[in-house]
Design brief:
The protein folds into three domains: 121 residues, Acyl-CoA dehydrogenase/oxidase, N-terminal domain (Butyryl-Coa Dehydrogenase, subunit A, domain 1, Orthogonal Bundle), CATH 1.10.540.10; 114 residues, Butyryl-CoA Dehydrogenase, subunit A, domain 2 (Beta Barrel), CATH 2.40.110.10; 148 residues, Up-down Bundle (Butyryl-CoA Dehydrogenase, subunit A, domain 3). Helices cover 52% and strands 14% of the residues. It is built from 13 helices and ten strands. Strands 1-4-5-8 form a four-stranded mixed β-sheet. Strands 2-3-7-6 form a four-stranded antiparallel β-sheet, with helices on one face. A two-stranded antiparallel ribbon has the order 9-10. The longest helix is centred in the middle third of the chain and has 37 residues. The protein starts with a helix and ends with a helix.
Length: 398
Amino acid sequence: MARRMDTYLASLVGEDRYSFYEVACDFAKTEIAPKLLSWEREHIHVPDDAIAAMAELGLFGLTVEEGYGGQGGGLTELVLMGLALGYHSQSVAITPGAASSLGTKPLQLFGNEAQKKAHLPALAAGERMFVFGLSEPGRGSDAANPEVTAIPIQDGGWILKGEKCWSTNAKWASHVVVHALTEPDGRPGHRSTCFIVPMDAKGVHYQEMAGKEVWLQSSTGSIAFDGVRIKDDAILGERNEGFKVMVTTLNGGRLFIAALSLASLGFALDKCRQYAQERIQFENQPIGRFQRVQDVLLDMDIALHQNLTWLFRTLEDYETGRMARETAAKVKIECSRRASDLMTMAMEICGGVACFDEFELIRHFRDLFVCRVGEGSNFALKTMCTRSLMPDIGKILQ
């Protein structure tokens, strides 16, 4: 059965981009999908050979300029990759996805030429991976006020102290972009600075976060900084402008999370419409003849079509610099909540078989929760989006 999502994508992107999407789909179907169940049952992260295969295909350098060894694409190409891989597994898709949208992107946006030359070629080749150091044990949505501190040294440089958590790709990271408090008494949004810190620096300690039941093949780590000494040339962007680095980076990341949500929804729709035609019950008829089943399938189809259209329209604005900050948040909120709500209905259509890993819906059911809280909790993002609706209250909330 042809994927329903492809019907809509063919009219939303140009021929070249759709051809790339088909290549990524073929790769996911042959190299990833047949191995997922064994990876899950053996409780292993994406294996090194799979990461190497993705690197060879150029997935880690999609958005990197050709002059630095990348493919020269944009966020649209990254989203297409997310749809292709995320159709089978969000946790596989997020590996090159986060490496690009959260790891490489801040360097592209705010790095100086020396930093770009030092890192971008290796990042594009998949030989290095940057991890985004934003969330903390005591700081989630309140990202503007990090608890990790960077204390200036009198003769130059800084000392980092504190801990980051929920850091995607930490296991494979060569460097972490750390968002740290540098000006406690500064005005809101101008109290922090971002630093590029090698993971093998003295005093940096990584530990995989145990007990996670979502994005099972993705690495999610805690990174502690025990008096880590870094030089001034480690600063990414401007001093005390770290919050700007973070929020600018997250705009693209939110659109990628929206794509993962729709990838899961697209998979569920295909799985359920096939099951509804094959599952025979009551007078030897397929369950797809029941209107309640048809209603759910149609709601899934409408949500997929509608939100893919919105997502790619927003991507056009992002690529041309016309996207309002709250638009990415709105797209992410709607795609993630609509997909996760409909996933529950999809599983109910299929009944008990939906609970088994071999049927694959349960994987997407779990992972869609991450889409609701990742790249900014939906609840927190709603507060941000509401400011433009009520400007007077927005001034109070800032």
